[in-house]
Amino acid sequence: MEPVINKGLGSTVFIMGIVVVLALLTMKSSPRSSASVIASIKTPKCTIKGNISMKTGSKIYHLPGMKYYESTVINPAVGERWFCTESEALANGWRKSRR
Fold first, then answer.
1. Does residue 49 contact residue 65 with C-beta atoms inside 8 Å?
2. Domain assignments of the chain as residue spans, ordered by start
3. Scanning 5, 9, 20, 98, which has its CA 20 to 30 A from the CA of 33?
């Protein structure tokens, strides 16, 4: 006795495989908004770092050459940002770091 094979099942599996491959290719090649955020963090147009203190919530900006400038990482998701001028930082409510 021959086993009964559902011929429609083979084509369904094949089509599902193609759909999965296309979905994976689309996910890999399509730009995500987080990619642009990461790019802006790595290559900012401005050099003043507007940081928000985790301890106090204070908005503090750091200039290149200041003590904590290099170790400060800007996270736009929590409201931190880059400034082009000190006056821009001040106008937006940030204060200059004391160090």
1. no
2. 45-96
3. 20
Residues of 4-35 as b/e, b for ≥16 C-beta within 10 angstroms? eeeeeeeeeeeeeeeeeeeeeeeeeeeeeeee
At 23, is the pLDDT very low, low, confident or very high (cuts 50, 70, 90)? low
The rounded Cα 16 to chain-centroid distance in angstroms is 32
Cβ-based neighbour number of residue 92 at 10 Å: 12
Q: What is the rounded distance in angstroms from the CA atom of residue 47 to the CA atom of residue 44?
A: 7
Q: What is the pLDDT of residues 3-18, one digit of tens each?
A: 555 566 667 767 766 7
Structure tokens, 24:
């994976």
Predicted local confidence at residue 1, as pLDDT = 60
The Cα angle at residue 81 between residues 75 and 85, in degrees rounded to 5: 150
CA 99 to CA 91: how far, in whole Å?
20
